[in-house]
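To assess whether the prediction recovers the assembly geometry, we first specified each molecular entity separately, as shown.
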Amino acid sequence: MASNGHDNIPDIVIGRLPIYLRALNRLADDGQEITSSHELGQRLGISSAQIRKDLSHFGGFGKQGTGYQIEYLQEKLRKVLNIDREWEVALIGVGDLGKAIAHYRGFADRGFHIACLFDSDPAKVGQEIGDYTVQPMAALQQAIQDKGIRLAMLAVPVQHAQEVANTLVESGITGILNYAPINLTVPKHIQVQYIDPVVGLQRMTYYLED
Amino acid sequence: MASNGHDNIPDIVIGRLPIYLRALNRLADDGQEITSSHELGQRLGISSAQIRKDLSHFGGFGKQGTGYQIEYLQEKLRKVLNIDREWEVALIGVGDLGKAIAHYRGFADRGFHIACLFDSDPAKVGQEIGDYTVQPMAALQQAIQDKGIRLAMLAVPVQHAQEVANTLVESGITGILNYAPINLTVPKHIQVQYIDPVVGLQRMTYYLED
DNA sequence: AACTGTGAAGTTTTTCACAGCC
DNA sequence: GGCTGTGAAAAACTTCACAGTT
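The predicted structure of the complete assembly is given in tokenized form:
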């Protein structure tokens, strides 16, 4: 992960913030208003010291003797992560996976909105999915530039993923969430995150006896 | 990630092996037979020294002066990761996401096979998806025990995820791939991996200017 | 000439432990 | 009494650099 210009805050710290935020979301859903580094740490399997140290990079969000006000901490973390606004995301590929992503209800309340869908299959172009019409790949660059979209989710077959990623980068996308099981080669200033369930499974089988 | 008994090999090293394997798969697909730590590192954005060091935990897989024979290294990594066999996996929840998972073709050649599907919705029970029939939750424990299944993918709504996870653990599951945006609380000997696309997106927005 | 495997050095990350505050 | 924020210490991880092999 390339830290473009930003700060001196370790990537590994940034990577944990969304996890903290997710835990806070759950606590808030349960109606809780205050928590502590100790409680959060217990839930996440992380030491309380690490949580306090991580948060301390951005200022003092807690109260000694009391802990952290959940709503306030959520707000602060959203600000740090730049999601105190909504980001438009392009979705490329509307096969089974792309459709499931398009229908997923969990983006909206966490800072993201799917703004347009693309597929190279003429049979899929024109289809209505969610609120949007599937557009042809030829329309991609124009649409992304017109709407000023910075993020894309890539759900195309593995053999096309690198090629489509190249197009995305040319179109001005600077962050790619890649669902294809391939490591993308991109310029240094482009962020990539990977979603690969098989990697998750393979990371567990090592620890299974027999 | 709890290292249950196993060895003294750092979790962070184990976590990278599936990534190496994925890169090797691509090289093999391209017909290449030999690679080097330098080439792999370039593709993955990792130093060649780290790759060599990681692999050295498990013995010498390369040849000085030459590099690594791809097929041989794949075989060795599969053995280390315990995927030199096929693991049966249970899938819980067959909404949009669960269906997309059930139809995904990418598990088979990387060590996994979806062996049974469950859903709590009576309207979905009995449906045919892929090669299997959706079973009711009441059948879960028996099916998992009969088939000796150790791994599960959890694709149920967030508000049921913890409760279903508890049932899975009681049924003898020891590894859970969790698609719900919630941190699961499980006994120490249970492995959990998370698939949360929003976390991926949130990890990128920090680095986007504006 | 090219590349691995590896101790040793260097850097990063985590934990400790406690002063300060509620 | 309980909790945060934080320097200092400890642990973990990565990189260096090179001897040894093909």
